[in-house]
Design brief:
Layout lengths: L10 H5 L3 E3 L2 E5 H8 L3 H10 L9 E3 L2 H10 L14 E3 L1 H11 L2 H23 L1 H30 L2 E2 L4 E2 L1
Antiparallel strand pairs: 1-2, 2-4, 3-4, 5-6
Helix pairs in contact: 2-3, 5-6
């Protein structure tokens, strides 16, 4: 983990650990444990001991398929591949609740940085929504054009051409 001179984490350290799962931005319990400087089991204990603080909209356990997808896209989580325990994913609100459950100065400081990162990413997505929509539209148009070219080439391959006479048959 990279810290700045002030002892704060570098913003990219946190942003690189925020994933989108089930359409919401979350952080995986192992990443949070690393940032907070605690063991993952300590975080999971807090979730189990305080279920009223962690409703499903704040914290949810990944499915086996979701875990496999996370392992595939995040090299630093490759050790999850062999874990029998399905990881928990925490939303921005779940991170805030976790800091109150862990009750340490480090947890509070790190949680503030994490929440600020969630906010910055949400702002970035909102400010660039029109660009993302245009890119989606361009991609759709490109796929449509590719399909038309494929039809054209397939049709041309089915046409017989007599090379001696130079005529189509």
């Amino acid at each position: 983990m990279e810290n700045t001179e002030s002892g704060l984490l570098k913003p990219d350290t946190i942003k690189n650990r925020i994933l989108t799962i089930r359409g919401v931005q979350v952080m995986i319990d192992r990443n949070l444990a690393e940032l907070y400087g605690v063991e993952t089991k300590r975080i999971n204990e807090q979730v189990k001991r305080n279920p009223n603080r962690f409703p499903v909209r704040y914290c949810f356990q990944l499915t086996e398929k979701e875990k496999d997808e996370v392992v595939a896209i995040c090299d630093h989580l490759s050790n999850l591949k062999f874990s029998y325990q399905l990881p928990y994913a925490f939303t921005e609100q779940g991170v805030a609740m976790l800091s109150t459950a862990l009750k340490s100065d480090t947890a509070v400081k790190i949680s503030i940085q994490i929440i600020d990162s969630f906010v910055a990413m949400r702002r970035f997505l909102n400010e660039n929504a029109a660009i993302f929509q245009r890119l989606d539209a361009l991609e759709s148009k490109q796929l449509e054009t590719d399909g038309k070219f494929k039809q054209l080439f397939d049709s041309l391959q089915q046409v017989d051409f007599d090379t001696e006479t130079g005529h189509f048959l």
